[in-house]
Amino acid sequence: MTRPDRVHIRIRFRKAGKIRFVSHRDVARLFERALRKVRLPVAYSEGFSPRPKLSFGLALSVAHESDAEYLDVELISEPDIESLPAALSDALPDGLDVTAVMVLEPGTVSLQQAITSCMWRIEVLGAPPDTVSAAVADALSASELWLERVRKGKSSTVDVRPTILELSVGGPTDHGTQLIAELATESTSLRPSELVVVLGIAGLTEGRVRRTHQWTTVDGVRSEPVSPPNPSTGHEQELLRAS
Amino acid sequence: MSSVVSTVWPRLEPLLPRVQKPARYIGCEDGARSKPVDPSLVSWCFTYPDTYEVGLPNQGLQILYEIVNERPDARADRAYAPWTDLEELMRSQGIPLFSVEHHTPANEFDVLAFNVSAELTYTNLLNCVDLAGIPVRSADRAEQDALVMAGGHCTYNPEPLADFLDAIVLGDGEEVVGEITAVLARFKRPDGSRDGSRREILRALARIESVYIPSLYTVHYDGPVVASIDPIDDQIPPLIAKRTIADLAEWPYPKQQLAPLTEVVHDRLNVEVFRGCTRGCRFCQAGMITRPVRERPADQVRTMVADGLRRTGYDEVTLTSLSTADFSNVEDVVTDLMDDGEQAGCGPLSVSLPSLRVDAFGVGIAAQLQRAKRGGLTFAPEAGTWRMRRIINKLIREEDLYEAVDAAFSQGWKRVKLYFLIGLPSETDEDTLGIAELARNCVAIGKRHNNRAGVTASIGGFVPKPFTPFQWFGQNTSEELQRKINLLRDATNKTRGVQLKWHDPKASLVEGIASRGDRRLGPVLEQVWRNGGVFQEWSEHFDLRLWLDAMDDHGLRVEDYVYRHRTEHEVLPWDHLWAGLHKDFLWQDWQDALEEVGLEDCRWTPCYDCGACTGYGVEHVVASATPPAGGSQGTGQDLGTGAAVPVLLISKSDALVAASAPVESMVSR
Q1: Domain boundary among A91, A108, A125
Q2: Contact, B244 vs B209, CB < 8 A?
Q3: pTM of the model
Q4: Cβ neighbours of A44 in B, within 8 Å
């Protein structure tokens, strides 16, 4: 599967602003174009229709933003890592910014397998802050939280309480209340939109949603697949507000 | 038009998580211009009356968008028809049609300009105008409303849309858009308001060559036929001629093709290598109305491709034209492009030619060119028998098709697609069934190489178009087209490997109503639209009943508009417009078709004075004086010698012999 002469890199990027309305699949296509624009020596699959060897982590829902998206790329030779974040950011549309790139050690597990949970900032709309706080407290004290899911036309009921690793109220937003949540992604997972439903408040809807971290857990130690960029210089705050 | 330019973005943004594919509404494409909103500039909103995915790649709009934005006195944005989910939300919250650059309400532009390329989008055009908050009928518009204009192939008969359009442009838009802008600038005050009445402005526009102001003409009828079309006074030209740019090299547009954030049709770099076609296929409106052939210099093609790939990061480029294999020295040009791509070192590059010639040469090029991904291979023999192909002047031998298909399957393709038309003039069931036979034979050839080899035969019902030799022909009824489809289905359903696809004959019927219709269809379009008939190009929305009811309600008969053969001397609804082709040339070509007489490609042979060059003092711009290798569409005809034209092929009585006879013996000079 892996060829020793190949170099694998992991790209960390941010998706924010208008571009949050672009789908996961379209982001993949935008990266394919950007990688060609910066002339990165991307490896291609063999066969009738060669494709660049890219592998994305967990999909991000349309309209959600993120500070911590990841993409692995297989290359046929070592790239100039230093200049790559800036070059790729320039080649990508506004709102997609590469914040860090690292060369992977051989044998690194894939993103899909590595991620165990995600941190989210979820704005909820349509209920007073007190009601939201009470619902959060109820959810945390519950031993079971049942959610009805329809996937592929089949309905099932799942206890999603174990997937809520952390949940707190982060404070008010312009139009609603912000929740901070860590949601598991292994075996049973929970989406931010589903969390809004299990809070059980009639009329509660999702506002702006942002993934702030994706975590891997190795031997009980939690870490990010690629270290985050340098501490915020205020620029990041600006990006958070940009739309 | 207003001096205050606003944006709907704050109201639109919260709606986007609730609709399908919201990326269609955010703009931000690579190549998008965001010229500062200065009210003193003449502002254009170029609009495609269908979804973003269909409309964004439209090259015509992209060309005009760039030309206008390059002008110091003007700016341009773009708009597309929102899908029904967003439209419903917009209407419920009072959000008007908006541009994707600044999310400016469409009625705040000076011009709302549509590209009209398909009859089934007409009701969408009305819907866009209404959604912009502009009265749909030109006569009801207020002084400050945007001017509603249109261009594109359908505007060669814009009469069904005459009630709704303030101004129409015929032909190449590159020059005209600037001339219109200059006139509008004269009528604009620095604060953006208009200095002059709507009527004055339209009269001024009417003086521009190729600009047609429908409200300045009156039409009289005699039963189903148009009796006369007259300008309202002698200041207004009785005949409006299309515009032709003489030299494509002067217009290297789009210089920055839009690369969208979300997938669209034709999602690749497109470089137009020539405009016009003189193959002379008699059913083909595009080939007739875009004459003469004007090639782009090969060096410019190479530069445009290299720059475009570097800028967009695409790995695929299509060399567009009506018949790209006919581009002078096409083999050398594409080989150079491939080499440039390899040297750029950004992965495998695919070059595709949208209209493959039906011969092994074409397949060989295709195999060589499509390194990054193998697209499908499509051939367009158009008709199932040699007799029929002579009538439509698409002179492809069966052997050429078989060689092409053999080459394709032997080079690894597992499926090829064949395009055919049914309902062509004088078509018999034998001709129709010839399609099934060709498809079966192609599958048999494929099986020699691959047991899973398949052929998709794609069947379209023929809709006669204005400014073609077939404009006098009465279209087949939808029942007749359906019967022919059934014949083909029965003839192919036992053959494994043949897949039959067809265009809905009911849709062909509606296209037929609009294609050659007159102004009396205005109320019909309006009623269909008011009753919810939008996105008629989309099968899930298409509703024939709406159209038939509207025709009935306005006392109009499908028979008169669609099925009736036109007569030689009747006034056609577009007789006050001129596509550069003499009407007597078209009539002669129609008679020749019925006599099964072919006509050569005048690019490489003497002129037969169709009017497209002589009427404009222009000539073909063709780099090579000889036809491409393989002859005319691979017919093996010797076109290099400049024979007397028209070429008489064989008489009707010999038709059956012809199908199997070597082609050389059929060409008598």
Answers
A1: A108
A2: no
A3: 0.92
A4: 347-348
